[in-house]
Design a protein that fits this description.
Elements: H1 2-21, H2 32-138, E1 143-145, E2 148-163, E3 190-194, E4 199-207, E5 211-223, E6 237-249, E7 253-261, E8 294-304, E9 311-319, E10 336-337, E11 339-341, E12 353-355, E13 361-370, E14 373-388, E15 391-395, E16 398-401, E17 407-425, E18 428-438, E19 451-453, E20 459-461, E21 463-473, E22 479-490, E23 493-497, E24 500-504, E25 542-559, E26 563-578, E27 596-609
Antiparallel strand pairs: 1-2, 2-3, 2-4, 2-27, 4-5, 5-6, 6-7, 7-8, 8-9, 9-13, 10-14, 11-12, 13-14, 14-17, 15-16, 17-18, 18-21, 19-20, 21-22, 22-25, 23-24, 25-26, 26-27
Helix pairs in contact: 1-2
C-alpha cells in the first residue's frame, strides 16, 4: 500500500515537471527545435508512464495477491480461531469430564468408605444378633410353643409367724377371731413355720393379628384336705388361686373369664387382670380394710385414650355370689333357710356351707390412668335370698311358725367403692381405698357378717364400711419400706319381737365372760364363741376391727436373668372391738362397755422368685 502511494506521488511530480518544461508561446521564436524536444520529452514521459503503469499493474497484482493472502489468512485465522474455540470447548469439556470423573471418583471413594463402615456395622450387628440369639436360646425370657409365648411364674417360700395370742392358724390370720382375754388362746402365743404359700403358674400369650389371647394360672398350697396335718409330712393340697382366659380386640375391647381377683380389687393398670395392687404383706389374708375376693367371674372392659392425657377404662363383671354368714345374737326367729352343706357328689366340700344364690354379684367400675396416678370408682349390687316360715306368735323367747307355708324373700344389697394411688416421686407411693354399703362385708378382708335376721324371719343386709391407707417407699433399688392402716365396721342392726331383742350387735348380748378365763378342758377351751360355752357366754359381735402394719423387704439379688431373692419382715397390731351388751352372770369388775381383743404378730419370709 505504501508503494502505491509513492508511485502516485511520482506521477504527480512528473506531470508538474512536464508543465514547467513546456514554454509559453511568447517565450521563443524558434519552433522546430522546441517541437523535437517536446516530442522527445513526451516519449520519455510516455515511457515513464508505461513503466509506471506496468508498475501499477504489478502493484495491483501484488495487491490482489496480498488481498487473497490476507483473505486466506483471515480464513486461516477464522479457522484457527474456530479450531482454538473447538479446542477450548474440548478443553472445557475435558476439564468438565475430568471434574465429573473426579466427582465420580470421590463419590465412589465415599461409597466404598460407606460400604466399609456399613460392612463393619453389619458385622457388628451380625455378631450382636448372634450373641442375642445365643442369649435368648440359653436364657429365654419366655418359652415358645407353636403360636404361644409361655412365661413361667412363681416363687419358693419359707415363711413364719409369731403371734402374741394364738388363733390356731397358719401364716394367714383370721382377723375376726382374735381371742379376747376370756379365751384360753388369749393367754398363749404361737409360732408356726410354713412353705405353703410357695406358688407356681404361668402366663400364656398369643397374637393372631386381630385378636390378642391371654391365659393365666396361679396356684399355691394354702388349702387343707381331710387328711392334711402338721404331724410329719405337712401334706397340704394344691389350691387354685387364679385360672382365667382373656380375648382382646385391636380397639381394646376385652372379655376375661375364669377365676380371678374380683373387679372390686384395686388394679394397677386399667381394669386388667394380673395387675392387681396387693399390700406388701406376708400374711395371705392381706390387711384389714383391703377390698378383695378371688372367685369365678366374667368381665367385659373397654379402654379409651392413653396414659399421657388420661386413659379411661369402663368395665362390668358378673361374679360368683356367696352369703358369707348371718350375724345374730339374742333370741331371733330361726325358721329360715338360705344355705346348706356341700354334697360330695356335687363336688362341694361337705364340711362347708354354700348359699343358695338367686343371682350373681354385679360390679361396675371405671378407672382413670396417668403416668404416675391411678384412680378408681365403682358400684356393687348383691342379692340375698331366703326361704322362711312366717311367724304366727311368740311367747317369751319361743316363736311359733306356720310350717305349711314356705315363703321366699330376696333382699338387695350393694354399695360403692373408690381408690386412688399416686407416686409423687420414684421413691414414694401413696394409696387409699374405701368401700361403703349394705351386705358387702364379704368383700372386706375381715369377713364380717353380710346379713342378720329381721323381726319377720327374713334376712336383712348390714350396713358396712371399710378402708385401707398405704404408704410404700423405695429408698433404694434393693429396699422397700412400707406401712398400712386399715379398718372395717359393721353397724348395729337389731330388732325386737315381744321381749326378744336380737340382731347384729344386740344390746341384750351377754358379754359377762369376755374377760373371764374359761376352765381348761384337756385339749382346749370349752368351746363356743371365743372359747366359751353357752353357760359362760361372750356374745358380743364385732363392731370395728383395725390393724396397723409396717415392714420392709430387702432384695440382695434382683435380676431379669437370675430372678429375685427377697427377705421380708412385718409387724402387725390388731384390735377387735365388740358391740356393747349386758353384763350378767359372773361379771368382771371394771369391764369396758365394749369388750376388746388385741394381738401382735411378726411375720418373716424368704422368697426366691423365678425370673
Amino acid at each position: 500500500m505504501k508503494r502505491l502511494v509513492k508511485v502516485a506521488v511520482a506521477l504527480t511530480l512528473s506531470s508538474a515537471a512536464m508543465a514547467q518544461t513546456v514554454p509559453a508561446k511568447h517565450s521563443t521564436k524558434k519552433k522546430a527545435p522546441a517541437t523535437k524536444t517536446t516530442a522527445a520529452q513526451i516519449d520519455t514521459l510516455e515511457e515513464q508512464l508505461k513503466r509506471q503503469q506496468e508498475e501499477l499493474d504489478t502493484l495491483k497484482e501484488q495487491l490482489a495477491t496480498r488481498d487473497q493472502q490476507i483473505s486466506a489468512e483471515k480464513n486461516n485465522a477464522a479457522v484457527a480461531q474456530q479450531t482454538a474455540a473447538d479446542a477450548s470447548a474440548k478443553a472445557d469439556a475435558a476439564a468438565s469430564s475430568s471434574s465429573a470423573a473426579q466427582q465420580k471418583a470421590d463419590t465412589l471413594e465415599t461409597t466404598v468408605n460407606d460400604l466399609k463402615t456399613s460392612n463393619q456395622g453389619l458385622q457388628e450387628t451380625v455378631v450382636a444378633n448372634q450373641a442375642k440369639l445365643s442369649e435368648e436360646l440359653d436364657n429365654p425370657l419366655s418359652l415358645k410353643y407353636k403360636g404361644l409365648r409361655i412365661t413361667p411364674i412363681g416363687f419358693f417360700a419359707f415363711e413364719g409367724v409369731w403371734r402374741q395370742r394364738s388363733v390356731n392358724s397358719d401364716i394367714n390370720t383370721p382377723f375376726n377371731t382374735i381371742p379376747l382375754p376370756g379365751a384360753n388362746e388369749g393367754h398363749v402365743s404361737e409360732l408356726n413355720f410354713s412353705g405353703r404359700q410357695s406358688r407356681i403358674g404361668g402366663l400364656f400369650e398369643a397374637n393372631t393379628g386381630k385378636l390378642k389371647l391371654t391365659g393365666f394360672l396361679e396356684a399355691d398350697f394354702l388349702s387343707s384336705g381331710t387328711t392334711s396335718n402338721d404331724n410329719q409330712s405337712n401334706s397340704y393340697t394344691l389350691r387354685q388361686r387364679q385360672f382365667w382366659g382373656k380375648v382382646e380386640t385391636t380397639n381394646r375391647l376385652a372379655l376375661t373369664g375364669g377365676q380371678m381377683w374380683s373387679l372390686v380389687t384395686e388394679t394397677g393398670v386399667s381394669t386388667d387382670a394380673h395387675t392387681e395392687k396387693l399390700p406388701a404383706t406376708i400374711d395371705p389374708q392381706y390387711m384389714v380394710g383391703f377390698s378383695w375376693t378371688r372367685q369365678p367371674s366374667l368381665r367385659l372392659q373397654k379402654q379409651f385414650g392413653d396414659v399421657k392425657t388420661g386413659m379411661l377404662t369402663t368395665a362390668v363383671a358378673v361374679e360368683q355370689a356367696q352369703t358369707l354368714n348371718v350375724g345374730v345374737t339374742g333370741t331371733a326367729p330361726n325358721a329360715y333357710f338360705f344355705q346348706g352343706a356341700g354334697v360330695g357328689g356335687g363336688l362341694y366340700n361337705a364340711s362347708a356351707n354354700y348359699s343358695n344364690n338367686v343371682a350373681p354379684d354385679v360390679i361396675v367400675k371405671a378407672t382413670l390412668d396417668y403416668r404416675h396416678a391411678h384412680f378408681e370408682a365403682g358400684g356393687l349390687a348383691r342379692f340375698f335370698r331366703t326361704v322362711y316360715n312366717p311367724i304366727t306368735g311368740v311367747t317369751g323367747s319361743t316363736y311359733t311358725y306356720d310350717t305349711s307355708k314356705q315363703l321366699k324373700d330376696t333382699k338387695t344389697g350393694g354399695g360403692a367403692f373408690v381408690s386412688a394411688r399416686v407416686s409423687p416421686s420414684k421413691f414414694v407411693t401413696l394409696a387409699w381405698q374405701g368401700m361403703a354399703g349394705t351386705g358387702i362385708a364379704r368383700y372386706g378382708s375381715s369377713t364380717l357378717a353380710d346379713v342378720t335376721v329381721k323381726s319377720d324371719g327374713t334376712l336383712e343386709p348390714i350396713r358396712h364400711y371399710h378402708g385401707l391407707f398405704s404408704l410404700e417407699t423405695h429408698p433404694t433399688k434393693k429396699w422397700d419400706v412400707f406401712a398400712y392402716y386399715g379398718g372395717e365396721y359393721d353397724q348395729r342392726t337389731q330388732y325386737q319381737v315381744g321381749s326378744n331383742i336380737f340382731g347384729y350387735g344386740s344390746r341384750n348380748a351377754n358379754n359377762a365372760y369376755c374377760y373371764q378365763v374359761a376352765p381348761l378342758q384337756g385339749t382346749g377351751a370349752a368351746g363356743g364363741t371365743d372359747g366359751f360355752s353357752s353357760s359362760t357366754p361372750c356374745q358380743g359381735l364385732t363392731r370395728y376391727i383395725q390393724e396397723g402394719m409396717f415392714g420392709f423387704a430387702y432384695r440382695p439379688i434382683d435380676s431379669p436373668k437370675y430372678g429375685r431373692l427377697q427377705y421380708s419382715v412385718t409387724y402387725q397390731y390388731l384390735q377387735r372391738n365388740l358391740w356393747s351388751g349386758t353384763v350378767t352372770g359372773s361379771p368382771v369388775a371394771n369391764m369396758p362397755t365394749g369388750p376388746r381383743a388385741e394381738d401382735s404378730m411378726i411375720h418373716v419370709g424368704m422368697r426366691y422368685y423365678i425370673p
